[in-house]
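Posting for a labmate who doesn't have an account.
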Amino acid sequence: MHWRGTIHECSDAPAWNPAVVFLPSVSGPAWSLQSGSTAGIPPAFFISSGFGNLCRAHQFGRKTGSTILLASFLEHGSSMQYRAVTTSVEGFVQQIACCYLRHGYWLYVKGRVPDGKRPEHVDEKLIDKYRINVSESTRARRKKAGRSNLQYIRHESTFVILATKGEHRFFDEESNLIRDIRRVPIRYGGYSISYKPGGRNKDGSNDDRWHAHVEIDRDQYLDLRAWFSERALRDSPDRLAKAFYELPIAPYAPVRRQLLMLLREVNRVRKVAGRKQLPHEILPLRRRVVRPFEERVRQSPVAVPPDQTRVATVNGHGR
């Protein structure tokens, strides 16, 4: 029998090598690791299923071929690196909205890395201070005991520490800075992230359940509305379609409603002047899921759309 871990795009588990397969060792209580390459393998390992917590006794292994006897599982879970640094605004927002909020991480502190300090040192300090780098099973035990769990995430120089309800030194040391995302949204990169009830079911009925809510920040939305209202008569339909299509923004459900409101405003101005209306097909309404912690081409935060090469047309709805 063997165990395989899985890669979760939105996971609380630390990153690990997907090629690794854990096998029980026939020689004793230690566990063996089989992998195509043993170079650079750390002395302790973790499986996102929580299986690694069964092996807490320190074991010292020997290397024979492609097999290494597992060594030194830590008392509180994983020794693998905690994934905290996102590579894009889009990934930062997605990880918070789609992965952390639905698990009850509603209390937060937002901060900024001081000038002159290395962000990596701040990451390490905060993660160690509040013991954030723990396994899923440790988090489950903490929750059952009425203790709080924490998550840490950073993009460039901005970081957020999120916490569930419960007991933790975090609430004593950060008491003056803690905010509730259900009342005070996280604003970053032109987005506003909150957690609230409401919305619509697929059949159009009201949905009273609580959901993550990601929209364009109010100030950014008003700037966009003013910009499109001004350009509604000055630009051709094709240039307006291009501007909508190239907005650097992830179209979550509230964002889609805001985009439709912007388009409605543009069409209102054009209708008064007797101009051609723009179809809703020009709007980018499908959100692309990203891997928050993987290197990718950097995406700019929400901003007033620049004039660039056209990629969409009003008549052809090119994509």
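Reply:
Got it, the structure tokens are right above this. The radius of gyration is 24 Å.
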